[in-house]
Amino acid sequence: MSNENLLITFIAILAGLGLTDLIHSFHRLLRKRKVIKWHWIPLVHTFMSFQAMIIIWYNIRAELNSPLIETSLGFFIWLVPIIMILLVMLAVLPDREPDDGFDMLEWYFNQSQYYFTLLVIFICFYTLNRYVMYEHNSLWFLPILLGVVYIILIFSKNYWVHAISTLITLSFFVLNYFLQHVGYV
Question: How many CB atoms lie within 10 A of CB 13?
């Protein structure tokens, strides 16, 4: 088996772990839907963490063509964002919810510092990865803009800051779809 196939298998396992936990957590919430006070902000973040893993998955082929992936430093730079997005996917929805009621927005704000810190670390390593692996791409720095939003969210407990930032972040994901379609990302 070639190194490329080994690396693709490795990321498939990590992606599968994250997606499985995300789907399982969402399933548990749906089963208790009558005692849960739902809110759109944590659900949008769930969607975006799912999409982030998909984006990484579709970008993997270009990264594996980089000669840097054959070095231990290059492998580390490639691996850390994948592990970080896995941790993000594990943190975006609750592991357990009480049987007598659960407020998604309250849970979101209780976990926001941890969740957004993971995202900032992910963004730092993902940006480093893009810079090192995609030197030819002029838009390698775009994730940094998202990181600035996440740093603000680490320190804010204001509902409107989170709501507006979530919509801005969602627009970033929509922009990513557009840029991929026209071939910029």
Answer: 10
The confidence score (pLDDT) of residue 130 equals 75
- C-alpha dist (Å) from residue 112 to 36, 59, 62, 79: 19, 28, 33, 24
- Which amino acid type is present at position 62? A
pLDDT at 106: 94
User: For 68-105, how does the pLDDT look when each residue is reduced to its tens digit (9 = 90+)?
Assistant: 777 777 778 788 888 999 999 999 999 877 677 789 99
CA distance 122 to 77: 11
* Angstrom distance (rounded) from CA 149 to CA 166: 9
The Cα-based distances of 99 to 28, 29, 31, 36, 38 in angstroms read 11, 11, 11, 9, 15
The ranges assigned to domains in the chain are 3-182
* Three-class secondary structure of residue 54 per DSSP: helix
Tell me: the pLDDT tens digits for 114-153?
999 999 999 988 888 777 766 556 666 777 888 898 999 9
**Residue 114 to residue 162: CA distance in whole angstroms:** 15
